[in-house]
Write a structure and sequence with these properties.
CATH topology of one domain: Tetrahydropterin Synthase, Chain A
Shape: elongated
Distance between the termini: 197 Å
Number of helices: 12
Structural class: alpha+beta
Largest sheet: 4 strands, antiparallel
Low-confidence stretches: 12-17, 412-427
Number of strands: 9
CATH superfamily of one domain: Band 7 domain
């Protein structure tokens, strides 16, 4: 057995000796730095993994794009997690609220002094015409120009359609599209109406027609956007001619008012004269005039007019017709009675005319004398009547007033009718 070499049992570290203190500190610092760097990298990785966590508000809905491709799920309100960008992208849209878009494409440009002023306080001279590069306007069917502003309220019905069909993932894309449709629809609607209709008389129709046309275009594109309300405000003709336009409209309004009042007065008069049947009476008269060349039709129309006058006409004309009918019946009845009496007395007259005349004269005399409304005066034989005609009492009063006015007033001629003594001795 060979004895071991003592050198084989020596410790290499013991032979190298302890490290220098500076080297040891450097090694510790490097190890600590690597640990800190590793922790920071882990935190960064975690933050990166959760960097695409989004909160969807209650008035929003969100879609998810993965590598640019739209995912079918629609995320409601709450937290939404997705892979970090550029793998996934969250697209939130305000679908639960109405969005308002003001559009000034069809109004005139306002200077700094005119901004914020009402139309009533904006005035321009006749030489200040439109500037095509700044002023917007719509041409109407009567070759007039009108300015107006629009306020569009819209909402997103289908966010998936909107993101897939519209090139844009922001609300501005929908607003650009709606603005274009409003400008085009305004041209079409204005070209079918007059300036007065656009500004005053058919404002509601203009708003409804604009909304209908815009929604048709949006639906045809499958945009997923719907216009709920469109309002037109501040409609006006060009400012330099606004006063003339207003004067013309006031004159037209006054004309319509007078025509309406005249028609109402006509209706009231006709109702008062003929009652509710006046319209049918006027129509029957027109038919008679039109059927003058056709005897059969003319006779039928005249018979219808007679029927209306006899049975349906009321009011003043009705009363006159009824009174005339009653008077006619009375006169005819009296005439028939006179004819019957004549026929009865004719044989008597032929037999003895003097006797019949004397008898009729006596009957008439008795009838007059027995009438209480007749004043009877008996004149003695061989006496005369004198008729005294008095003056008109009104003329007498007038003459008396004239004499009193012409009489002079003389205080010296006045005398007391009773003398009363005065003085201490009479107290």
């Amino acid at each position: 057995m060979t004895p071991q070499d003592p050198a084989s049992h020596r410790d290499p570290q013991a032979e190298e000796g302890p490290l220098d203190v500076a080297h040891q500190s450097l090694a510790d610092a490097l190890r600590a730095s690597f640990r800190i760097l590793k922790g920071i990298m882990m935190v960064l990785v975690v933050l990166y993994l959760f960097s695409n966590v989004r909160r969807v508000d209650s008035h929003e809905q969100a879609l998810q794009l993965r590598l640019g491709r739209l995912q079918p799920d629609v995320h409601e309100a709450g937290l939404v997690w997705a892979f970090p960008f550029p793998i996934d992208e969250i697209v939130p849209l305000p679908t639960r609220k109405s969005n308002e878009l003001p559009i000034d494409s069809h109004t005139f440009h306002r200077s700094k002094n005119e901004v914020g002023k009402s139309l009533a306080f904006i005035a321009r001279g006749p030489t200040q015409g439109l500037r095509p590069d700044l002023d917007g306007a719509l041409m109407t069917a009567d070759a007039g120009l009108v300015h107006m502003r629009w306020k569009v309220t819209y909402k997103f019905d289908d966010v998936a359609k909107y993101v897939s069909q519209i090139l844009g993932r922001e609300v501005e894309a929908a607003e650009t599209l709606i603005r274009t449709f409003v400008e085009n629809a305004g041209i079409l609607v204005a070209s079918s109406l007059t300036a007065e209709e656009m500004i005053r008389t058919r404002v509601e129709y203009v708003q409804q027609e604009m909304r209908r046309r815009i929604n048709e275009q949006l639906e045809r594109l499958g945009s997923g956007v719907t216009v709920t309300v469109i309002e037109m405000y501040e409609p006006t003709p060009p400012i330099p001619v606004r006063k003339a336009f207003d004067d013309t409209q006031r004159a037209e309004s006054s004309k319509r008012t007078k025509i309406r009042d005249a028609e109402q007065a006509q209706s009231n008069i006709l109702n008062k004269v003929a009652g509710a049947a006046h319209a049918r009476v006027l129509k029957a008269i027109d038919v008679i005039d039109d059927a003058a060349a056709d005897p059969a039709q003319h006779a039928a129309a005249k018979a219808e007019l007679d029927r209306l006058l006899d049975q349906e006409v009321e009011g003043t004309a009705g009363r006159i017709l009824k009174d005339a009918g009653a008077y006619l019946s009375t006169v005819v009845g009296r005439m028939k009675s006179d004819v019957a009496l004549y026929r009865t007395m004719l044989p008597e007259y032929k037999r003895n005319p003097a006797l019949l005349v004397a008898r009729l004269l006596e009957q008439t005399r008795q009838k007059i004398l027995n009438n209480p409304d007749v004043t009877k005066v008996f004149r003695p034989a061989k006496s005369e009547f004198r008729i005294l005609i008095s003056l008109d009492p009104d003329q007498t009063r007038i003459e008396e007033e004239r004499r009193l006015q012409e009489k002079e007033f003389d205080p010296s001629k006045l005398r007391p009718t009773r003398i009363v003594p005065v003085g201490p001795e009479y107290d």
